[in-house]
Amino acid sequence: MKKGLLVLVLLSLLFVTHADAQAKNGISFKGLLLDYQTFNDGDIGDFTSYHPGFEVGFHRFFTPNLSVNVPLVVGTVQSHNRVINLNDPFHKRIIALDAKVNYEFLDRTSKIRPYVLAGVGGVYEDVGDTNVQIPIGLGIKFKVNPRAYVNFQTEYRKSLSDDRDNFHHGLGFIYMLGKADMEQEEEMMEEEEMSKIDSDGDGLTDDVDLCPQTAGPEELNGCPDTDADGVPDYEDRCPQTAGPVESRGCPDSDGDGVSDNDDECPNMAGSISNNGCPDEDDRDGDGIRDAIDDCPDQAGPVSNRGCPTDVSTTDDRDGDGVPDARDRCPDQSGSAATNGCPDTDGDGVGDPDDQCPRTAGTIANNGCPETGDRDNDGILDASDSCPDEFGSSATGGCPDTDGDGIANIDDRCPNEAGPAAYNGCPDSDGDGIPNDRDNCPNIAGTVDNNGCPSTSTQPNVVTTPQPSTTQPSTTQPTYSQPVGGDGYITIEEANILEIAMRAIQFESSRDVITRESYQYLNSIADLMTRYNNYKLVISGHTDSTGPADTNLFLSRNRAQACYEYLISRGLDSSRMDYEGYGETQPISDNATLRGRRLNRRVEFVMERIQ
Fold it and tell me: For the purposes of burial, counting CB atoms within 10 Å of the CB of 551, is it exposed (0-12), middle (13-18) or buried (19 or more)?
C-alpha cells in the first residue's frame, strides 16, 4: 500500500509538471478540522474529538469552470475511543495526497463561486496501514481581488479500509498565478463593465466613446462639435467658429490654406511660407512687407516704418488723424482701425475690403453678416439641415422626437425608438423585420410573408398596417424577385445577413449562442428555405487576444454552432459549409476595444448555385 501511495505522488507531480502552460495555475493553504470519530460510533457534535490539520495544494484550471486540485494534508487524528496515552493506536499522525476535480458553477467574474469536488487519494498513517480514500464534497470561494479567494470546504472521505471513513472541514485561501492570464481576465471584466455604460447618453457606450463624459454624434465618435463644422471640439482650434477640416476647424477667409488665426493677411490670399500674405507684398523692395509698411510704394528703413527719411510722416490730407504715409485712403476720411479708410456700415472692416460695405457683418466673413439661426438651436442655418425646426448637433440640427439618435427626416418611425440598422424603427416581435415593414408587428413571422407567420390562414390577431405599406395577400408574397427556383435575393433580403453578422452573440469565451441571437438565425433559415438555389457559407472570426491556435479553434466552433442551429431549423447540411479563421482576417484594429469587438464576428454569405 505504501508503494501505491508513492506511485500516486509521482503521477501527481508528473501531471502538474507537464500540464498545459497556457492554463491558469494557483496555490492554496488551508487549516483543517479532521473528524475520524463520527463514522466510528462517535458523535458528530463532539467537537472536542476533532483534530487539527494543515493542507497545501496546487490548482490547475483547464476551463474557467473546471480545475484539478492536488492537495497535501498533514494532521493528527483520533477515533471515537478517547485515551490519554499518545502511543495508543487510535491516536495517530497522517499524511495524505489527493487528486481532485473541482467544478465551479458561476463564471470567473462572479464574486462568489460555489463548487463541487470528487477525487481519489492515498493516506499514510504512522500507526496503522496506508489506505486509499475517495473524497467528495462541497465548497465556496469568495473573491478578494482578481488573484485571491477565501474559501471554505467540507468533504466526506470514503475509505476502502475498515473504520477509516471521515470528514475534513477546512478554511483557507487560494492565490492565482500567471500574470498574463490575470491581466487578460481583468481586461475582460473591465470591457464587460464598460460595454454597459453610456455616461453622456449619446447612444455610444463608454468603451467606444472618445468623449464619454460629453455627448456628441456617432460620426465623431461621441465627441461634441459646437460649431457644427465636422471637426470635434477637442481637435478644433476654433471650436466656436466653423471652418474646414484642412485648417483644423478654423475659417480661412481668403482660401489660401492659412487659417485666419494664423494669417497675417486674412483677407488677401497668400502663401503658407509667407504667413498667408502674398509673396509679392513688398512693392518698394525695402524688405518690409506692404502690410506693415507705412510707405509701401517708397523704399525706406525699418526705423522709419518703411518710409524714406526725407518724407514726412505727419502729412494728413483727409484730416482723419492717420498720416498719409500710413493711410490706405489718404483722400477719404477713415480711422486708424481701418488703416485710414472709411467704414460705412461700422463693422470694423474698411470699405475697400468690405464685401458688404453697406451691411454690417463680421471680419471673419469679409464684412458680410453671418448666416442666421432662425430656430435658435445654436446651429447656424447654413449648417442646419432643418433651419426652421429646433434640433441638436448630433442630428444635424433636426429634431429627434423618439430620441433614438436618428433625425425625424431620416427616421422611418419618428415616434418610436429603433436602431439605425432598421432606419429608426423598432422590431417589436424580434423576427428581424422592423415594424414599418412588418404586417404582423406583434407576432414573429417570416420575411416571405411580410413578418406574419407562414400559415394558410391569417393569424387571429388584429394588427395596424403601417401607412407606407399595403396589406399583402396571404398567397402571394410581395418581393421584387421570384422566390425559390432560379430567383435572386434582393438587396433588402441580403441585409439580413449583414445584420446577423453584427447581432449574433455568444457566451463569453464559449461557442454557446445566446438566446437573443436565435431570431437572426431564424431569419437566415427562412431566407435559405425560400431560395433553394443558394448555398450558405459560414465563417467564424476572433480578435487577436489570446493564443492563435485557441482563437482558431473557438472561431471554428462558433461557426459550427450556427451551422448546427440552422440544421435544427430544417436546412439541409449539404447546402451549407462552415470554417473558422481565428484572428487571421480582421476588419478593424485589434489595438482598440472597438476594433476587437468588431473583429469578433460570424459572417454569412449566400452563394448562388450555377
Answer: buried
Closest CA to 66 of 543, 568, 541, 509: 509
Show Cβ contacts of residue 4 under 8 Å, excluding neighbours closer than 6 positions. 122, 130, 132
- Kindly report the length of the chain: 610
CA-CA distance, 129 to 114, in Å (whole number)? Answer: 35
Give the number of other Cβ atoms within 10 Å of residue 246's Cβ.
11
Amino acid, single-letter form, for residue 43: D
CATH of 2-184 given 1.10.645.10, 1.10.10.60, 2.60.40.10, 2.40.160.20: 2.40.160.20
pTM of the model: 0.33
Pair 332, 319: CB distance under 8 Å: no
Q: Return d(Cα 463, Cα 252) in angstroms, integer.
A: 57
pLDDT, tens only, 269-296: 877 877 777 766 677 877 777 767 777 7
Report the run of H or E that residue 102 belongs to, with start and end. strand 91-104
Amino acid found at 606: M
Distance CA 363, CA 266 (A): 9
CA atoms within 13 A on the CB side of 388: 0
Beta strands 534-541 and 576-580 are parallel
Q: Domain ranges in the chain? A: 2-184, 479-608
Residue-wise pLDDT tens digits, 362-386 = 887 788 877 678 888 878 776 778 8
Residue scoring higher pLDDT (358 or 15) = 358
State the cell numbers at 107: 463564471
Residue 246, amino acid: E
Q: How far apart are CA 346 and CA 361, in angstroms?
A: 9
* pLDDT mean over 482-504: 73
Considering the domain delimited by 479-608, tell me its CATH architecture: 2-Layer Sandwich (3.30)
Q: What sections of 48-178 are H helices per DSSP?
A: none
Dihedral over Cα of 148, 554, 557, 508: its sign: positive
DSSP string, 489-542: --HHHHHHHHHHHHH--B-TTS-PBPGGGHHHHHHHHHHHHH-TTEEEEEEEE-
Q: Give per-residue pLDDT as tens, 163-189.
A: 788 899 999 999 988 654 445 555 556
DSSP letter (8 states) at residue 34: E
